[in-house]
Amino acid sequence: MAASIYNSITELTGNTPLLRLTRFSERYQLHVDLLAKLELFNPNHSVKDRIALAMIEDAERRGLIKPGDVIAETTSGNTGIGLAAFAAAKGYHFRVYINDFVSIERSKVIQALGAELIPFSLVPGFADFYASTDGDFVAATRWLVARVREAEPHVHFLQQLENPANPRVHALTTGPEIWRDTQGELDILVASVGTGGTLSGIGRYLKSQYPELHVVAVEPGIGSQPQPDNPDPLEITGVHAFSSQPPERIPANVDHQVIDEVIAVETWQAYQAARELALVEGILVGDSSGAVLYAARQLAARPENQGKRIVILLADGGGNYLSTQLFDHHRPAESLKNANAVQTSQPLLS
After folding, report:
1. CATH code at 53?
2. pTM of the predicted model, to two decimals?
3. Is 337 a catalytic residue?
């Protein structure tokens, strides 16, 4: 057998496996062929490795950055991890502005990779601006980027919410991988929406091959979104509501023309599904993947979907959630129905 020797972590991204969820389907008597794209097999255990590498290399091709420069991003965690790893491998300094509620594992991994980590709470004026927008993360991100650029013009933000390299890499890699591994036989695609790039890019490619494909986007339910009477609910990490939002609150990378249906999932339901996957399939995934799995189960239960093939995108592994309540099997997931986000028990900066 010929050996494969790689020269950089950048060469290990993509070509993740597609796994049939046999025991999960048997448990719920799902009469569908349920296939999971396991993005935890990327080098940094997340689908965001794909866009992290793509955005850096796109900026290199366009002459926007060179080794030794400072690149930056705002992120809830996984994009930050991917960018920190690839920045280290390519010789850049990376700075991440990050949500204070991110799991301690994510912040520690980013720091271990040598990145500069700044919680949103330490950015002067950020909290007041974010509150004034009633929780508009798109507006808050743009405000932060503009403020930093004004003070430090040499810092290059990659801006995953609107960077076209985000959906493009999924149209060039993730979508074709699914098409190849299913041999073009699939009926439904399910993925969550954060920046919108994953679902939009994959869906765009697959629909170019098979226009009848039914593309389903997963967003948080109303109980898992910030509201005036509940500003800090327990949210699904990195997943954002978009179907009922005004255009200015929706990331530019969300392609509505690709999406055929939207399913809302509450955080506790996402937790429940992620726990079940761990117990019956031996796979640890994050809460956004749990949300996608929960939505797929609802789709599989519909009579019109019997016998169909459903492909779901499981965005990341569960290792970075062990300090959270995600896998706390002693506490029923349904008991988290009205839970609030809690500050991590350890400081993000050390």
Report:
1. 3.40.50.1100
2. 0.94
3. no
